[in-house]
Amino acid sequence: MMKRAAILAAMTLATVAAPAVAGTVTVGNYDSGNCYPVSCFAGESYGGGGSLYQQVYTASAFTSPTTIGSVSFFKSSGGVMDSATYDIAFYLSPNAAGSLSTNAASNRGALLSNFGSFSVSGAMPDTLTFDGSRFTYDPSLGNLLMQVSVTGLTTSVSYSSFFQADGSRLQTERLYQYANGETYTGGNALVTSFGAGAVPEPATWAMMIGGFGMVGGAMRRRKTVGVRFA
């Protein structure tokens, strides 16, 4: 019995210590700039400010199922970002780039992840990364949709910083909705890099192995999310 337990423990250790490697997928061609949704969107003077942002990524931009645990955007021209809270979720979408609907609800298919709630403020970094709840996106099931809901504006800025964006609407397209309900779609969607997220250090793996007896309770806890500046 003890020998069998030792073998099972070794197999578990090998599985945890050698997680699947997931590459980074970057969608969009940098040819323009855009301050929505985290630079000037919340504090936009028009329409009572921005409240909802969607961005669709055409399935063909992904060659295989992709593990996503981080989302990164890149500076085009520096400045200050709006101080607000941004709730990010991911869905499948029946609509591809170039065919995004102004009806935000019709762009949302099956929910893939309530990725996380993030507070953003201060100067725009070279790379703004959100680490959230990891999930797997399978492009054979449909296009990928990121939805950002904006609340809690405390500091407003006006067009002082821009992220790299793609105006072509070939691989990605955006929807932006104001507090007054007016909704638009168009190009200049953010160039976006999808990664597997931060990889735990060896000591963290050891702690995880030691805590397998509590895994049932841990699975019910909300995953930690964060924002990285680089």
TrEMBL record:
The keyword Metal-binding is annotated on this UniProt entry: no
Stretches assigned to the Ice-binding protein C-terminal domain: 198-222
Alphabetically ordered keywords of this record: Signal
Top-rank taxon: Bacteria
Signal peptide: 1-22
Name assigned to this protein: PEP-CTERM sorting domain-containing protein
Organism: Sphingomonas longa
